[in-house]
Amino acid sequence: MDAVWVPLLLSLKVAGWATLLNAILGVAAAYAISRWRSSARDVVDAILTLPLVLPPTVLGYYLLVLVGRRGVFGAWLDRIGIELVFTWQGAVLASTVVAFPLVLKSARAAFEGVDHQLENAARVLGVSETGIFFRVTLPMALRGISAGVVLAFARALGEFGATLMVAGNLPGRTQTLSVAIYEAVQAGDDNTANLLVLVTSVTCIVLLVVAGRLVPPAARGVGEVYERRAFRREAVGK
Amino acid sequence: MTFRTLPFLRRTACVGAALALTVAAPSAFAADLVVSAAASLTNAFKTLAEQYEHAHPDTKVVLNFGASDVLMQQIVKGAPADVFASADQTAMDKAEAEKVVQSASRKDFAANQVVLIVPQDSKLGIGSLKDLTRADVKRVAYGNPSSVPVGRYTKGALEAEGLWDAVAAKGVPAQNVRQSLDYVARGEVDAGFVFATDAAIMPEKVKVAVRVPNRTPVTYPIAVTTQTKQAQQATSFVQYVLSAEGQAVLAKFGFQKP
């Protein structure tokens, strides 16, 4: 069963890290872009969305050129002891880059959908800008962000092209589910391939069901819940 | 048909024609001869195909390169190949066992040698297979033994010296021999196993550190597939590869006679 467990756990680990990074970076970038008033905004947004449309092979090549041993940042990374090519961290990098636009797009739309009057109301009540972000804007946008994060996790779990180019196909170390399936098919090992695709399909179904329950109810509902909570707090004099 | 619908129809026709072209363009035509050849044959077979087409203007040779076992798997699963050229006997044996190649047409047409290469600017001073077990040698590339012939030759040679387990622990299995070459050329690995003919393609980026002694002869078999619809052209291509002219091309790329 190691032939299934090892790549499955590795896939979950890689996708988990990539999702965590994207949840932070993607949301931060989306918030910045949604608030930024500049003509350069569309260009920056387009560049950050590129991984969605570029073939993963192009991304893989870019990453190799950037972080490879002889890459632009490779020598510098080498000196501080970070190795990305042929390591699981490299797989995380590839998955993060590929899935990034999914969080960015959903989070940006969610932030732009937040009613500014509510933020202004909080401002009038003397809440700090940080407080407004964490207590008004973020809770209101949470549903859209969650949807993006779930999509990003699914995309990271299925990442193949860029991962294969950056992290290679090292059994037990960088061989994720999708890469293990590719290898099994190439070697004509149909039994392993059948088992792996079955496990992948079941994993994805389970994830989608779980994700469907994790995503909070509609944004309006969250707002109402929040308002009710705030009202209650006001009522008890806190 | 009224006057006003005309531009619309014309535009639709244009788009339709363009679509039809895109859809039809990459598909193979009847006169196409599909040759599935080992990745190490890439450069030699491109030249061979060009010369063959020159001599037989009515035939278009379509080349499909990859690891020999992958090509074999494709053919077993029904890929429309007419000729199969493998980098080792194992892949061809499997093809024969699956009855996808005509046993009578099978012939060895070239020989090669496995070499250990290092990046041209390598400072590790690797001079023997045993050096690969040193701590400062961190990554070694080789073809994946389960699907790449050069990987099988490599594994055999290292096993004979009792070094396989130590090297596999720092191994980077490649999808085909050219990927192994690429990893070394980019300096992403410290050393890699390829064929002598592959190393000769990038003399400015890689250098041969060790010529690995052949334990089993490194010979390339070629055969006509059983499901070919153009047995005559396929046989003619195989004969061309075996002819003096074909052998001269292979020799030019560093292949030896079988």
UniProtKB/TrEMBL annotation, chain A:
InterPro entries assigned: MetI-like, MetI-like_sf, ModB_ABC
SUPFAM superfamilies named in the record: MetI-like
Segments forming domain ABC transmembrane type-1: 8-211
Cell compartment(s), UniProt: Cell inner membrane; Cell membrane
Membrane topology reported for the UniProt record: Multi-pass membrane protein
CDD domains: TM_PBP2
GO molecular function list: molybdate ion transmembrane transporter activity
GO CC terms in record: plasma membrane
Keywords noted in UniProt: Cell inner membrane, Cell membrane, Membrane, Molybdenum, Transmembrane, Transmembrane helix, Transport
Transmembrane parts of this sequence: 14-34, 46-65, 85-104, 195-215
Pfam families in UniProt: BPD_transp_1
Function of the protein: Part of the binding-protein-dependent transport system for molybdenum; probably responsible for the translocation of the substrate across the membrane.
Similarity comment: family membership: Belongs to the binding-protein-dependent transport system permease family. CysTW subfamily.
Name of this protein: Molybdenum transport system permease
TrEMBL record, chain B:
GO biological-process terms attached to the record: molybdate ion transport
Source domain of life: Bacteria
Signal sequence, renumbered to the chain: 1-30
A Pfam family that the UniProt record links to this protein: SBP_bac_11
Keywords: Metal-binding, Molybdenum, Signal
Residues annotated as binding molybdate: 40, 68, 177
InterPro entries in the cross-refs: ModA, ModA/WtpA
Keyword Signal: yes
Molecular function as annotated in GO: metal ion binding; molybdate ion binding; tungstate binding
Subunit-level organization: The complex is composed of two ATP-binding proteins (ModC), two transmembrane proteins (ModB) and a solute-binding protein (ModA).
Protein family: Belongs to the bacterial solute-binding protein ModA family.
PANTHER family: MOLYBDATE-BINDING PERIPLASMIC PROTEIN (PTHR30632), SULFATE-BINDING PROTEIN (PTHR30632:SF0)
Name of the protein: Molybdate ABC transporter substrate-binding protein
Native organism taxonomy: Bacteria, Pseudomonadati, Pseudomonadota, Betaproteobacteria, Burkholderiales
